[in-house]
Amino acid sequence: MWVQLRCGLEPRALAALAVVLVAAAVFAGMHFWSARPEGVRAPDPVSAAGHAPVPQGDAAPAAGSSGTPEPSPGPPPAVAGVAGVGGVGGRIVVDVSGKVRRPGIHRLPSGSRVTDALQAAGGVRPGVDLGGLNRARVLVDGEQILVGVPPGTVAAGGTGGAGPGPTATGAATGPVSLSSATADQLETLPGVGPVLAQHIVDYRTQHGGFRSVDELREVTGIGDRRFADLQPLVRP
């Protein structure tokens, strides 16, 4: 009544104003209620293995465990190879020379022995004495195996400082084995260069070695004169 008399409002206008005021009050109350702070439930702890804890009432952990899931075992450790015998990719490369059926380079699994290398080379030739060769020895990568070659008769010119060296004229102090000498050792012979030495190595690889010095005539690049120079300096 005071507002009506003060402002000169009609009853209908006063009722409408009262309705608006009530609606505004209700809207303000709802907005305040929805914006009130609410408590948030903390998340459940997660175990070290990334799984949620087992609820009570489920199966208990196995006897002897502490209740914490054990980490899964990792992959088994790699088997270490024999020291000094490992090659690239678990294989080794050896050079089998001398009186074997297929002399040359052979690739074998790591841990192979001398007898495995002899089998890879096709076996030894009939009548070869293997008394000084330890066939049970474990091979190493890059090793050279000389079969049927007497100890201490390695051709000159190879690497290593204890072997006999070439004379002042460049010839070896002992006969060079055509079946077991390397290309570098063959180059120490008079008149033999890298190309001719490779021809000799290729010939013995194709024919399984040299059975006699006369077979040297069949090598490409060796004529009668050069053969006469090399004959006293080499052996099969």
Can you describe what's shown?
This protein is an alpha/beta fold. Among the domains are: 2-30, no CATH class; 88-147; 176-235, Photosystem II 12 kDa extrinsic protein (DNA polymerase, domain 1), CATH 1.10.150. It contains 6 helices and 5 strands. The chain has helices spanning 2-7, 11-34, 114-120, 183-186, 194-207, 224-230, and strands at 91-98, 104-109, 144-147, 176-177, 234-235. The strands form 2 sheets. A 3-stranded mixed beta sheet has the order 2-1-3, covered by helices on one side. It is rod-shaped. The N and C termini lie far apart (140 Å). The relative contact order is 0.09. The model is unreliable at 57-65, 74-85 and 151-173 (pLDDT under 50).
Sum this structure up briefly.
The chain is an alpha/beta fold and 236 residues long. Among the domains are: 2-30, no CATH class; 88-147; 176-235, Orthogonal Bundle (DNA polymerase, domain 1).
